[in-house]
Amino acid sequence: MAAEIQPKPLIRKPILLQRVEGSQEVVNMAVIVPKEEGVISVSEDRTVRVWLKRDSGQYWPSIYHLMPSPCSCMSFNPETRRLSIGLDNGTISEFILSEDYNKMTPVKNYQAHQSRVTMILFVLELEWVLSTGQDKQFAWHCSESGQRLGGYRTSAVASGLQFDVETRHVFIGDHSGQVTILKLEQENCTLITTFRGHTGGVTALCWDPVQRVLFSGSSDHSVIMWDIGGRKGTAIELQGHNDKVQALSYAQHTRQLISCGGDGGIVVWNMDVERQETPEWLDSDSCQKCDQPFFWNFKQMWDSKKIGLRQHHCRKCGKAVCDVRPRLPSMTVNITLCMCILMQPEGGY
Which of 73, 170, 180 is CA-nearest to residue 118? Predict the structure, then answer.
């Protein structure tokens, strides 16, 4: 029999084009300036820098601006050249960059939060500035008047922020693992619902306004796709990382989701593939397969003289189960993991 020749997998390696150096401390955020071959960066060393590519091919700072507090995040709108910078002291400072990107003019300051600003979104269509802070507050301001329009207190420090312009829904992920959906009006907001599916904190959010799908990444190593548009409430869990999900990006034209993990892996998900919906997770004080108590069930632990176990959830049926595995060679030990599925991986490639 002739040996079958297997084609080699296509391996693509990124090519280093340029290294931009100069900040003395952690760079918290950087964005590319479209059509200008430039980069804007904000850093813990309190600097805002605009780097432009010179004829020599090197990037040199055309703007070096020192802020009164460490810069934690920013939002840049290329159409208006409006730069909003979040600071460690809770202030949001707004600037307009000149056409040649050699000057930044102060516009206004927002006293948005009581502590470090964690995320900023500028919505040009509504002239709104949305922000979250370590004070567990979500706030939105009018960028024309600088007036605070409203706020909402989240259950934990927010770690993800997305906004849908058409419906004026804002999505807030926090360190408790919860995603909160609010409907914003001009001066008030309405709580629509909360999504609870992660066992760890939400680390990233990504919104597809066309398919009306929200993606959330978490420190529990998973990504959940929330189908808000077509099948409201549908949730699909994607398992492809061995460490927390660091960032998410979505390509609408190819319907591909890209997730980056703390394990060093980058997973590309084809979201055109049909996947099974994640079941609702059930609550229980003991394993719903073997009835052994979980570690918080002190009464059953005392009565049965057994050590409490950690709780997990079956990805197939949603039952609360423990993580005790059978020990060889004895075959009389109960298999306490739900047998309908253990941890079915999704089709990332």
Answer: 73
